[in-house]
Amino acid sequence: MEVRKVISPVNTEERKKIDLGSGDTVRVWQKIKEGEKTRLQAFEGLVLARKHGSESGATFTVRKVIDGVGVERIFPLYSPMIDKIEVLRRSKVRRSKLYYVREKATKEIRHNMRKLLKRSTDERTDTKHSVVEKVEETVVQ
Questions:
Q1: Is the separation of the CB atoms in 26 and 80 below 8 Å?
Q2: Does 80 lie in the same domain as 141?
Q3: Rounded to an integer, what distance in angstroms lies between the CA atom of residue 60 and that of residue 47?
Q4: What is the residue range of 4's domain?
Q5: Percentages helix, strand, coil for the chain, rounded to the nearest 5?
Q6: 84-118 burial by CB neighbour count: b if 16+ within 10 A, else e?
Q7: Deepest of 17, 45, 50, 105, by most Cβ within 10 A of its Cβ?
Q8: Per residue in 82-130, pLDDT tens?
Q9: What is the mean pLDDT of the chain?
């Protein structure tokens, strides 16, 4: 009988044991190659989804907000470019896929914009129209 030898730079048994689920806040240390040097860069955010369990094509999606812009990255679980995965915080969630967080964040930003734009009681608080009005005022002047 032939013995199969798996050659992989990733410790697959260790990665299988990572208890990573949606709702967790993680820090993913990724190797980035610049020229001949490699460095580590962290990507910290909320896990929105974990797909394909612990099979070889398993992935997880991480979302973070940078300067008011949501950034999502999909990481392969067994990628040799991932140095380590740190679970920083766990949250109890009722869904396996948290894609609704995208809409929730947008609504929250819009709500905060309305608060900023509302200066007097007679001013409109609809963000779309008030931004258009301000642009029209600057174009006219």
A1: no
A2: no
A3: 7
A4: 1-98
A5: 25, 35, 40
A6: ebeeeeeeeeeeeebeebeeeeeeeeeeeeeeebe
A7: 45
A8: 998 999 999 899 999 999 888 887 788 788 778 887 744 455 555 555 5
A9: 82
